[in-house]
Amino acid sequence: MIRAIITDIEGTLSGVSFTREVLLPHAVKHLPEFVRTHRTVPEVKRLLADIRAYAGGSLDDEALMQRMVAWMSADQKITPLKALQGLIWEEGYRRGDFKGHVYPDAVACLRAWHDRGITLHVFSSGSVRAQEDFLAHSEAGDLRPLFSGNFDTRIGGKTHIAAYKLITERIGCAPGEALFLCDDTRELDAAAAAGLRTTLVQRQGAAASGSHPVVTDFHQIRLEP
Ligand SMILES: CSCCC(=O)C(=O)COP(=O)(O)O
Ligand SMILES: [Mg+2]
Question: What is the ipTM of this complex?
Fold first, then answer.
């Protein structure tokens, strides 16, 4: 029996184009000004130091800025970079520059599963803070009350089996009682290896499936074995 559902965001609950065409360009555009005005804020200072270390440690400020822009433009999922993006997006959501895109079928099913007593969780490369802002400012309103927990790559990489074991431990269910919904087969493979049930969400209806059940819409998701 499924007691917990864990969902990815980009490509699953939300369109890839929202990240690529709205969020990432926003972060790239506002990065220089954000760094200039926040570089002494302890959290930002620590994230910049972590990103510089990830880049090899030797880049000067200008080179680091160029590297961050290149990584963001390529949607690189680097944990401290994702955390920095989350801080930049927070201001964008607050100003009303955009709302989080969510597929209506996903919202309807999440509400129904929540009403049935299934707990809902997010596991995304976006930082927990970015996830919460996305849910709070979604096109369908504030979705945070539906969710019992959020996880980002600080718990482990999304292709790492250990991350899924830790998540189910934190949720307090057996791996086999959790269903992971995602658009990335490598992430689903890791979840399945950890013992979770899995479903591949292919919003574009593409062909590749492998060993995971495939849906194009949340209404097609089966919770029964
Ligand atoms: C709310 S996070 C915005 C999307 C994002 O930046 C991201 O990296 C999502 O990746 P996912 O793991 O959800 O595919
Ligand atoms: Mg995804």
Answer: 0.98
